[in-house]
């Protein structure tokens, strides 16, 4: 049975991954975009079957269209609605789920059809386990599975949905965190944790970063308690989320608040002297060792690999 | 402004016990306050500006948490469904809010422990909602709400009643002492059941099974001999095409 799906889009993050996931149900996949028209246009080039756009007027946040989007969802009654964990997307999803009287599941990694039911796989117990949940009726899912690059096929036309934004929510100002810009787009990042013993020791970290052509980042206590970095260098759930090709974590224990900030990194390397450190369960490569012994050697190795 | 603060509505995923066959159990693990609950409570107390703050929680755990942080009273939905059916948890919380009158804002910790409950609560109430909130204060009869949006900070105006999902960026600063906790235990607690709230759902959710993810475990390299370890790492990174 083909099951139609909606993907709620407020930014491009994971849009391709959600499209892939929704496709597994075999039905038509609609992009429900709340935001600027150019965002809807980019979604139209990603391979969605149809794009609906609640075009945001100046100063109107996506959440202001929650009721309007939910109303349309109720009319069309898709059995699946996915959204990313971006704050506005989660609010829009909640409204659609209520209108559809849908089950709501977070940490969704994949969906599949099983007869009349939808089976959703979600990460549980901090990602240690995948749980399959069968849902009869409609499913609204907060997707945090892998993103997927979409080849731009023939773009579909964007249907602008005329809608009331209400007056309850307005944007007063938006300020980009200027200091974080380099870190956010860096291909390589070296992260420092409390395993570093003194501020002066940052020198060895900076040398490694220079040899790698990497940006530096840190855990929260290295900023808040040690004050060795400004807050825009903190990576984690409450600060910057980054997606470099390579992240090297030095003396970082790997608490979930930090690791969620590097979930989208391609390769995570950890150097930690404690073989039981949690980060070794959450990385691609781990070196069990003293960072003070490893970092200088690693620096030389990177320098050599640059000039063979 | 009368404020409702939802607290202790999930268990900490780090406390889950995972057995060799991937089964999850929670031996003795209670619903807990997430990192974000204290931040929600702090903003609530400031917004209330002397008006009533009502704590709202589920289950059979400690009810004094919000009261120890300034809530005048607490409402408990004793049998709200948890875990798998987050929409039902959110619906029960929303219905409990609806029973109260004159509520200007509902605050909840925007906890990654289960974002679905936060979404469901906001959706079921149908009020304007903002997630990822880091601060809020009254401004010209409305609320000025600050939230993180990617790498940006955004200020919004919100006309009540609203749902604000608050995210913390540090651990709680002023943890209440024994004196506050003892006093909090004397504050009124109202217990209600899901039957009082009448939140029927039209879907069913059922766990079908659990398994370990098929991502390979990390390759652990012994760092006892740094040159060998680094050589191995560099070779692996080359193979992966990241250097
Ligand atoms: C509301 C809230 C929000 C938070 N948000 C964030 C966030 O966004 N980002 C963030 O990072 N944290 C955040 N935290 C903090 C988080 O919970 C952890 O406390 C923090 O990430 C731990 O930092 P760490 O790994 O540097 O320190 P630790 O946990 O102390 O780990 C230090 C590690 O260094 C290792 N080590 C020691 N010496 C050496 C050596 N010589 N060589 C190699 N390894 C060594 C140790 O084995 C240990 O594993 C938040 C916390 C709260 C409560």
Labels describing this entry:
heterodimer; A: alpha/beta; Rossmann fold; five-stranded parallel β-sheet; 9 helices; B: 243 residues; 2 domains; nine-stranded mixed β-sheet; two-stranded antiparallel sheet; 27% helix; binds flavin-adenine dinucleotide
How is this structure best described in words?
The complex is a heterodimer of chains A (about 300) and B (about 240). In chain A, the strands form two sheets. Chain A has a nine-stranded mixed β-sheet with strand order 7-6-5-8-4-1-2-3-9, with helices on both faces. A five-stranded parallel β-sheet of chain A has the order 12-11-13-14-15. Chain A is an alpha/beta fold and about 300 residues long. In chain A, α3 (about 65-75) packs across α4 and α6 (about 200-210) packs parallel to α9. Chain A has nine helices and 15 strands. With about 240 residues, chain B is of the alpha/beta class. Chain B folds into two domains: about 1-195, HUPs (Rossmann fold); about 215-245. Chain B is about 25% helix and about 30% strand. Chain B contains seven helices and 13 strands. Chain B has helices spanning about 35-50, 65, 85-100, 115-125, 180-185, 195, 225-240; strands at about 1-5, 15-20, 25, 55-60, 75, 105-110, 130-140, 140-150, 150-160, 160-165, 190, 205-210, 220. In chain B, the strands form two sheets. A nine-stranded mixed β-sheet of chain B has the order 9-8-7-10-6-1-4-5-11, sandwiched between helices. In chain B, strands 2-3 form a two-stranded antiparallel ribbon. The longest helix of chain B has 14 residues, at about 225-240. The radius of gyration of chain B is 22 Å and the shape is globular. At the A-B interface, α3, α4, β5, β6 and β7 of A face α3, α4, β7, β8 and β9 of B. β15 (about 285-290) of chain A pairs parallel with β13 (about 220) of chain B, so a sheet runs across the interface. Bound molecules: flavin-adenine dinucleotide. Flavin-adenine dinucleotide (FAD) sits at the interface of chains A and B.
């Amino acid at each position: 049975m083909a099951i139609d799906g909606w993907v709620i889009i407020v930014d491009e993050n994971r849009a391709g991954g959600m499209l892939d996931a929704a496709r597994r149900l075999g039905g038509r996949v609609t992009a429900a975009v709340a935001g600027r028209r150019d965002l809807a246009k980019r979604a139209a080039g990603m391979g969605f079957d149809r794009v609906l756009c609640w075009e945001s007027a100046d100063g109107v946040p996506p959440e202001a269209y929650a009721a309007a989007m939910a109303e349309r969802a109720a009319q069309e009654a898709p059995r699946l609605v996915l959204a990313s964990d971006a704050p506005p997307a989660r609010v829009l999803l909640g409204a659609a789920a209520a209108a559809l009287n849908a089950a709501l599941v977070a940490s969704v990694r994949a969906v599949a059809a099983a007869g009349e039911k939808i089976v959703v796989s979600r990460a549980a117990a901090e990602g240690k386990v995948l749980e399959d949940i069968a849902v009869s009726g409609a499913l609204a899912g907060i997707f945090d599975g892998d993103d997927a690059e979409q080849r731009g096929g023939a773009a579909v036309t964007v249907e602008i949905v005329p809608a009331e934004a209400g007056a309850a929510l307005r944007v007063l100002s938006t300020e980009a965190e200027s200091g974080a810009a380099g870190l956010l787009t860096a291909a390589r990042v070296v992260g420092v944790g409390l395993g570093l013993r003194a501020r002066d020791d940052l020198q060895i970290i900076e040398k490694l970063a220079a040899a790698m052509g990497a940006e530096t980042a840190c855990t929260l206590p290295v900023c808040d308690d040690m004050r060795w970095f400004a807050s825009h260098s903190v990576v984690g759930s409450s600060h910057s989320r980054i997606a470099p090709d390579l992240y090297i974590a030095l003396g970082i224990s790997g608490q979930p608040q930090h690791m969620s900030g590097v979930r989208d990194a391609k390769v995570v390397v950890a150097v930690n002297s404690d073989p039981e450190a949690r980060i070794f369960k959450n990385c691609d490569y781990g070196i069990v060792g003293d960072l003070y012994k490893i970092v200088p050697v690693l620096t030389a190795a990177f320098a050599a690999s640059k000039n063979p | 402004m009368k404020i409702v603060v939802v607290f202790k509505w999930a268990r900490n995923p780090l406390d889950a016990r995972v057995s060799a066959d991937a089964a999850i159990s929670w031996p003795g693990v209670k619903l807990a306050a997430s990192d974000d609950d204290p931040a929600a409570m702090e903003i609530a107390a400031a917004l209330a500006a002397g008006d009533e703050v009502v704590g709202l929680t589920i289950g059979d755990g400690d009810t004094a948490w919000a009261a120890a942080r300034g809530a005048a009273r607490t409402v408990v939905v004793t049998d709200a469904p948890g875990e798998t059916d987050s929409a039902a948890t959110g619906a029960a919380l929303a219905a409990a809010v609806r029973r109260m009158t004159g509520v200007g804002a509902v605050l909840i910790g925007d906890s990654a422990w289960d974002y679905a409950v936060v979404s469901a609560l906001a959706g079921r109430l149908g009020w304007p909602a903002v997630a990822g909130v880091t601060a809020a204060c009254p401004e010209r009869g409305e609320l000025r709400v600050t939230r993180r949006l990617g790498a940006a900070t955004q200020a919004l105006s919100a006309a009540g009643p609203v749902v604000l999902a608050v995210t913390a960026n540090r651990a709680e600063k002023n943890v209440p002492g024994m004196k506050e906790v003892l006093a909090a235990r004397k504050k009124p607690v109202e217990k209600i059941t899901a039957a009082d709230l009448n939140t029927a759902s039209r879907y069913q959710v059922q766990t079908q099974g659990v398994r370990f993810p098929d991502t390979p475990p990390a390759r652990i390299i012994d760092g006892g001999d740094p040159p060998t370890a680094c050589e191995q790492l560099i070779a692996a990174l080359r193979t992966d095409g990241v250097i």
